[in-house]
DNA sequence: TACTAATCTGTAACCCGTTACACATTATTC
DNA sequence: GAATAATGTGTAACGGGTTACAGATTAGTA
């Protein structure tokens, strides 16, 4: 590995001069610069980021904590972040938390020790006080953490409303909701959006709402139970696409035709929704855009700029497909 | 940020002693150790990984290069790697190459500069000579790079054979193949497996094989064309699950029933295959296991152990589902 | 011409750990 | 009791950059 000393020696200058050339700061004579650049090329010198980090106390690295990259919602999120950051000269450390506070803490510890410049966090459990301990720029993505921390998320409530309204529009007369886990902001707000619309209906029963844990199998199970105890239900709003898929499976197992007997709409707009039969209607999130902007905000924070807008709410878009076409 | 000096000062010892306590090496008196540990706890001292890396010339970080985390095959692969490595004390840098040699090179440069300890690479384009330039432990995953580099991959050819045989067994009389991109080891070998079985059939035509680029939309297009020009085809082996899905879409658009009119089988065993209707038969890969073992091999390499087995071939498992049930 | 400002370059301290080496003390062995 | 081994601890160099500071030239100005 060639070091700055090797280059200095080769170019017959001091390491300070080489450093100045590399970083384009301070005065350097044109001829000297050329000599140094020639030596850099000749020796194929690449400055050592670790040494630089040690001095500068920053690493040009950021961490992204997601619950589970295996969940189809997150790859695109991570991709949006990574794409932007690499182009800004940052590398991205991937952290799968499984929503486990211990793991989250572990990852934050590691980040701190590695002089990571900042973190993008998707979490329900991390609190502002914990983040304060680590004293690094943080941006919340998909779920808010605290009003002081810049957040990039979907307007879940209005999305929930749109979903319920759409089901009413296509003629559903009894609409159930497969809700995500309790006390998770996303699922709660989507549920509230549904309630906003449905509570005005005289037929509404609280037993039309069941909890599905954002998981396909679980959603299939609870949907089946729901449809068995409430055969009058002809429309289902699932709290995310994966659960909508579970609902689709449930309908199938009960020999219900979608959309004729049962209309189904999901939430998220992951690619999966185009791959089912019938294709799933959904509330699509601008995932890539959102994550990219989160990454932008993080780099701004790292560069010491204030981000004026703490709350960045993105609209969801209704995508009408076969599963609600009636 | 507390440093080792702070701790030393607090415990009234030298930094060397603190270092010895932290790393549990060298002689340290029991009482001294306790004093130091108390100071560490009190000050919540976490050693600075960057400084350590600089001296040790290793970073407890590895890079993983995948084409695109957004492709449903890779998240599980990455997860297998990350899970194993975090537990071994390594963090994982995620790199999306888009199969672009420039990006691959850029990522390798960054890794080198950050003293990354090793890399796990999924690539068709990276060559051994390039890797040699970087002089770091490398393991190839999913696709081989060179016989000198430990490889963890599926037995694609035998998988291709199993797929073709299965279609014959369920009674298909004309079997087409949607092949992945040319000169990509995986697609070529799956194709060869198909040929191994099909070439003995007197009905075989080379026009039964079309190329689909591992992409759903493209696969749907070429499958449709294939079925239109060869309506006698009643079985399709797609080079991966995403293309099998495209084939399913094509069948649908031609009003063909799956599996009655057309049996379809994919390759990979991603979760998606359980989510379609009908559910897709596929050759399932032990993705998580394979990637975990790749990570194990990489850490072994990093620790200076030789990995005896360069070629680690994993079997695929035939999963029979509705799409080939006839 | 004299003086100030701008340009150029090198020396050395610093970032924060790790460890070779030296020295001191205590334990073991004959 | 002397010699040797084992234990305990500190000093300082080192890893590879960055930059404050000083000193030397050159350019610009009155």
Describe this structure in words.
2 copies of one chain form a homodimer. With 326 residues, chain A is an alpha/beta fold. Chain A has 3 domains: 4-47, lambda repressor-like DNA-binding domains (434 Repressor (Amino-terminal Domain), Orthogonal Bundle); 58-154 and 287-314, Response regulator (Rossmann fold, 3-Layer(aba) Sandwich), CATH 3.40.50.2300; 156-285 and 318-324, Response regulator (Rossmann fold, 3-Layer(aba) Sandwich), CATH 3.40.50.2300. Chain A is 44% helix and 16% strand. The first copy, chain A, is built from 12 helices and 12 strands. In chain A, the strands form 2 sheets. The first copy, chain A, has a 6-stranded parallel β-sheet with strand order 2-1-3-4-5-11, sandwiched between helices. In chain A, strands 7-6-8-9-10-12 form a 6-stranded mixed β-sheet, sandwiched between helices. In chain A, strand 1 (61-66), helix 5 and strand 2 (91-96) form a beta-alpha-beta unit. In chain A, helix 2 (15-23) crosses helix 3 and helix 8 (156-169) runs parallel beside helix 9. The mean pLDDT of chain A is 95. Chain A binds a DNA duplex (30 and 30 nucleotides) through residues 1, 3-5, 13-20, 22-23, 25-29, 32, 47-57.
